[in-house]
Design a protein that fits this description.
2 copies of one chain form a homodimer. Chain A has one domain: Acyl-CoA thioesterase, double hotdog domain (Porin). Helix content of chain A is 14%, strand content 39%. Chain A contains 5 helices and 13 strands. In chain A, β12 and β13 form a beta hairpin.
Chain lengths: 270, 270
């Protein structure tokens, strides 16, 4: 491996024997969350596992990651299985295990793109250019947050005790080391938002993503054109109730192109 | 089986041997789509498979169904595996096969509910009471649509050639035979919307759901209280591009309670 960027280290996978349906990886301290790795890097690693399988075809169009249990710092194994390959798409089932325990499951759909009628209905929130916004972040103890250049235009991490009537957070975000976007990096970015309940409640409460689904709206060539530029990422919650809330978010390019729609269900404690 | 309702027939599953991880079912003509079964009934059947496993615990909170290939009219087998059971939630992997071919994969998360801080940010669209709206539907050849009492308040199926600038469809909907809601029935309802591209383009084009994710916001007791009453269901698309679009939808009770948030990625041809 020649790439020196921490993202490439984190998603690096080694094949285990033949057939190619098993790979091994290792958590990376640069992507640590409060407990275990950042969910986004786990999503990225699972997508990377499918994308690097010798039978993979097409671009990712949908990804669902279920966080079934904690991932302990150290080695893990991913099984990656193309359950069905059709003429224009391919369906993947993935499972990340440590020892005998399943820590994460995922499904991914890869597909071909063709020119069709096109339109975007959703519009990006109004925001000043990223160069006009001060760099922010999360708290110092969150290692993974330092991997991103975050510039909040709405709903930054609240000061303790100051709740907000809205769960909306909007930020410009890019890799802080200038690594160009690819699909695993975009999958990780889709989980960049701190839990919406912190914003509403004005402080920390235990919260963790249970299930994360992302739809990718652009193909590999369109993604490559974005390079390492900022994306505008905006998230909101729909309903908080009895220990769970759902978040919906959208990521746009600087020119207003919708790059991904992403949704998650989050557990929260109080 | 004593229940005479077509929904119960469609989701009926017979255990196959022991352990309980395999069940068999059969497509039902009352739930046929143009080709194969209604995606919603497939989602319902997969959720039913998990919910009726002897080890199932908690209520469904998240469900993702990937439509990997066509389901032929006839028998199918579902494998249902609790990959991890935690103190407060349980993660399922499911696969629907016919012969050697995987037709559908799914993951489900079941969870416990606890009283917490709660709020709903999204509001239901304004709509007259269902009794004030004429009953509508889809086209006569779509068998499954007759299983529902649909009353469109916005974005009914367009007349050919009459496209709409908006992809929004809103309807009151309930089981036309008065079957009370349960989680499989709610999972099916989340796929009740005809493809958004029909509305925008003003007519039919081949389109099919690739991946469907639903988050359930209420527990079994809250769901039972809704009985067989109408839900207000509203869907919109975010972006149509190069053969795919994503739909987000929300379902509310008559009193304005958000019951489910549901998202899907749809393939379309032209």
């Amino acid at each position: 491996m020649t790439a020196a960027h921490p993202f490439d280290h984190a998603v690096h996978l080694d094949p285990v024997g033949d057939p190619a349906d098993t790979v091994r990886g290792h958590t990376h301290p640069d992507w640590a969350n409060m407990v275990g790795p950042f969910g986004g890097i786990t999503a990225a690693t699972l997508l990377q596992a499918a994308a690097t399988h010798p039978e993979a075809t097409g671009d990712p169009v949908a990804l669902t990651v279920n966080f079934a249990g904690p991932i302990t710092d150290g080695a893990f194994t991913i099984s990656r299985h193309a359950v069905r390959t059709n003429r224009s798409n391919q369906h993947w089932s993935l499972e990340l295990t440590q020892g005998d325990a399943v820590a994460t499951t995922a499904t991914a759909v890869f597909g071909a793109h063709r020119d069709t009628w096109a339109d975007t209905e959703i519009t990006a929130p109004a925001a000043p250019a990223p160069e006009q916004v001060d760099r922010g972040g999360l708290i110092d103890s969150i290692a993974w947050a330092k991997r991103y250049d975050m510039r909040f235009t709405d709903g930054a991490l609240p000061a303790d005790g100051t709740g907000s009537p809205s769960s909306v957070t909007t930020l410009w975000v890019r890799d802080s080391a200038g690594r160009p976007l690819d699909f695993p990096a975009l999958a990780a970015l889709c989980d960049v938002f701190y839990p919406r309940v912190f914003l509403r409640r004005g402080g920390f409460t235990p919260a963790s993503t249970i299930s994360l689904t992302t739809y990718f709206h652009i193909d590999a060539a369109e993604l490559a054109e974005l390079g390492s530029d900022y994306l505008l990422a905006s998230a909101h919650a729909n309903r908080f109730s009895r220990g769970y809330f759902d978040q919906s978010a959208h990521l746009w390019s600087r020119t207003g192109q919708l790059v991904a729609s992403t949704h998650q269900l989050v557990y929260f404690k109080t």
